[in-house]
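During the reporting period the student researcher (J.K.) took over the structure-prediction task from the postdoctoral fellow and processed the backlog of single-chain submissions. One of the processed entries is reproduced below for the supervisory committee.
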Amino acid sequence: MKTKFGIAAGAFAAIAYLCGFFSGYLVLALIVGYVFIVEDNDWLKINVLKALVITLCFSVLSALIGFIPNIFDLIASLFRIWGKGTTISGAEAVVGINAAVSFIQTVLNICEKILMLLLALFATKLKTIKIGFIDSIIEKAIIKG
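J.K. obtained the following structure tokens:
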């Protein structure tokens, strides 16, 4: 099954996953737009949209995790306003929190890379990895919508 662009649908979906992995949103958004405007293949539509949604989910999750040190800094600033300066143990806690957040974001980044590479590999064989809530939302939007 080939696209109107002349590329196999599996290869095109793999390109979408790899663009999400390497280049981010702009190229991936252009690919999704092309597929939704020009192509008729529901499997391809589901997979390119899935690449975009997964990329967005990982970015949002990373941003939310990144807020954790900001929240602790905010709390420390409030204590400083009322004259309760941070102690050495408080400073050590902030360093520990920053290290934990950095570790979590690194793990998240590795998971994203592994998932996108696996999805690209599966796409070349016209298969996919089911990701419960993402797949159900996308399939409802494309097939039933």
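The committee noted the following: Residues 2 and 10 are 8 Å apart (CA to CA).
J.K. will present the remaining backlog at the next meeting.
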